[in-house]
Design a protein that fits this description.
With 231 residues, this protein is of the alpha/beta class. The protein is built from eight helices and seven strands, in the order αβαβαβαββααβαβα. It has a seven-stranded parallel sheet with strand order 3-2-4-1-5-6-7, with helices on both faces. Helix 1 packs parallel to helix 4 (108-115) and helix 2 (55-66) packs parallel to helix 3.
Length: 231
């Protein structure tokens, strides 16, 4: 029997605990972001979800509802293009796009580099619209006060158990595209049950950016968190 070789292939370097070291470095920068946001009492919310769940449409609707009450800005992450930021800017608020160039999530160092483009003293609420992905973004703290995950009715109601870390690390789950519930095989009760088994403290709001179902409740949640941060 031929024994397995223990020699590394020529030109390679074996690295151990790479992910741990990467996350430690990320957390160091995330702490810096937290301190910078605390100086101006700006609320930072990390919006996560699968691609196509309605994050950008929600940002547009939220801006329309709240821009006359509080000062809002959005930082958008995508692999390519400026399209989402352009859509959000059409509502009249500041939005900047982070192009990751293929990276499937945002990291704290990316967010920190873009922060200097915002005048935080004039922003009450800053959103980070993360790259559409229920896996990688769950591991990276961006210095946010709260993590909000969208769970679209078009995705199927089994995602909290399939991608538990995202729901474990979130503070609020928004069941989005609720206007499609009559047309898709999706159970709000089932997805809520699974999500609470993963994270019993997870808040849940059912929303539709098109019919505006739950949008007032979502906006009230945001205004309450802004008030708490200011207080």
């Amino acid at each position: 029997m031929i024994e397995k070789s223990t020699k590394a292939a020529r030109g390679t370097v074996q690295c151990e605990n790479t992910n741990i070291n990467l996350l430690k470095a990320n957390d160091f920068v995330a702490d810096i972001i937290k301190k910078e946001m605390a100086k101006t009492n700006t609320l930072l919310i990390n919006i996560t979800s699968s691609a196509g769940s309605g994050k950008t449409t929600l940002m547009q609707k939220t801006a329309e509802k709240l821009k006359d009450k509080i000062k809002i800005a959005v930082m958008v992450g995508d692999l390519e293009t400026e399209r989402d930021a352009e859509r959000i800017r059409e509502t009249g608020i500041q939005a900047l796009q982070i192009v990751t160039g293929g990276i499937c999530h945002l990291e704290a160092q990316m967010v920190h580099q873009v922060l200097e483009q915002f005048n935080l003293k004039e922003i009450d609420l800053l959103f980070i619209e993360n790259v559409g992905n229920l896996v990688c973004p769950s591991s990276f703290d961006l210095g946010e006060d709260y993590r909000v995950t969208l769970m679209a009715t078009t995705e199927g109601d089994d995602k909290p158990k399939k991608y538990p870390k995202m729901f474990l690390t979130s503070d609020l789950m928004l069941v989005s595209k609720a206007d499609l519930l009559p047309y898709v095989p999706f159970s709000v009760e089932a997805v809520t049950k699974d999500a609470h088994e993963v994270n019993h403290e997870l808040e849940v709001i059912q929303i539709s950016s098109l019919s505006e179902e739950g949008i007032d409740e979502w906006c009230a949640w945001l205004l309450d968190k802004v008030e708490q941060k200011k207080g």
